[in-house]
UniProtKB/TrEMBL annotation:
MF term (GO), any: 2-isopropylmalate synthase activity
Domain Pyruvate carboxyltransferase: 6-260
Keyword Phosphoprotein applies: no
PROSITE patterns xref list: PYR_CT
Upper lineage: Bacteria, Pseudomonadati, Thermodesulfobacteriota, Desulfobacteria, Desulfobacterales
InterPro entries in alphabetical order: 2-IPM_HCS-like (IPR050073), Aldolase_TIM (IPR013785), PYR_CT (IPR000891)
Domain of life: Bacteria
Protein name: Putative 4-hydroxy-2-oxovalerate aldolase
Keywords: Manganese
Organism per entry: uncultured Desulfobacterium sp
Any single GO BP term: L-leucine biosynthetic process
Pfam families: HMGL-like
């Protein structure tokens, strides 16, 4: 589907970093940045902008914090029209650490938030906007927050926030295409002056098809990751998304080379992508942390017991 106003954000380093505590090497991140630049991806999200007062630099790698100097180190000398993005979680960023956009290699800051904290997200996004950044608000765990408070949040974001886009985020990979259709229409009832976006997780192998449904519903901001890398079951595969969009500004070949040269070997030491435990948490609309714990244990393939334990915990 060719629609020139669509913009693609690659989240490979940011979302993939949730599987290795953001310990990607500078060399690896540089190779990803260079390949995605050649591919013509609109935004490359390199990690989180978290406070070092809240998280240890010994426990987490540099992409948990995305210092401007670290970003400059990996992008220096690479010709690119792609813009750098980072994510800021509500309550985890020291706003005084954020320089003016004119002094930073970062172009866009995406604020991640649950519906109940939308006031804080609006304040953060507006401050980022005032410092010169492009901004988005990513509404997480939308499969759990669809009551009247969502409508109130959408109305508030439209009226009070200066962000460029608002994302539907299927954090648990629990949604189906009809859910995406309903949510996009619901968002459009309120959001008139900003782009709508979609970020899907692949717990039930629906991230790509749900992204297509979001496009059909006029979402113009789309997220993907190289070879689907991301937390737990991962995300919409970037290579599939670029192939679907049929936009001549995107070149899939550098992504295919990157997969062959870097991501296939990475899979030997780092697990991500569809597995049965992640599918189960998606079916049950649960955070995948319990499935991630199972995959790290000696009983990682004990699926039926995991399913029964998850059911009993929901009944308690």
């Amino acid at each position: 589907m060719y629609r020139p106003q669509i913009k693609v954000t690659d989240c490979s380093i940011r979302d993939g970093g949730l599987m290795n505590k953001h310990m990607f090497s500078y060399e690896f991140v540089r190779k990803v940045y260079e390949a995605l630049s050649k591919a013509g991806v609109d935004y490359i999200e390199l990690g989180y902008k978290n406070s070092k007062e809240m998280f240890s630099t010994e426990e987490y790698g540099p992409w948990k914090f995305c210092d401007d100097d670290d970003i400059s180190r990996v992008i220096d000398g690479i010709e690119s029209k792609s813009k750098i993005a980072v994510m800021a979680d509500v309550g985890r960023v020291n706003m005084t650490d954020i320089r003016l956009a004119s002094e930073s290699p970062v172009h866009m800051i995406r604020t991640a938030v649950y519906v109940k904290e939308i006031d804080k997200a609006i304040n953060m996004a507006n401050e980022f906007h005032d410092k010169g950044y492009e901004t988005t608000i990513n509404v997480m765990a939308i499969s759990r927050d669809q009551g009247p408070e969502l409508d109130e949040a959408l109305d508030q974001m439209e009226k009070e926030c200066n962000c460029d886009a608002i994302y539907v985020v299927d954090s648990f990979g629990a949604l189906y295409q009809e859910n995406i259709q309903h949510l996009m229409k619901r968002f459009k009832n309120y959001i008139k002056t900003k782009d709508l976006g979609f970020h899907g997780h692949n717990n039930q192998q629906l991230a790509f098809s749900n992204t297509i449904e979001a496009i059909i519903q006029n979402a113009n901001r789309l997220d993907g990751t190289v070879f689907g890398i991301g937390r737990a079951a991962g995300n919409c595969h970037l290579e599939l998304l670029l192939g679907f969009l049929k936009n001549p500004k995107y070149n899939i070949l550098p992504v295919l080379d990157l997969i062959a040269e870097e991501f296939i070997p990475l899979r030997e030491t780092l697990e991500w992508g569809y597995t049965i435990p992640y599918a189960i948490t998606g079916m049950k609309n649960e955070h995948p942390r319990s499935a991630m714990a199972l995959r790290a244990s000696e009983n990682k393939d004990n699926y039926s017991e995991f399913y029964e334990n998850l059911l009993s915990s929901k009944m308690d």
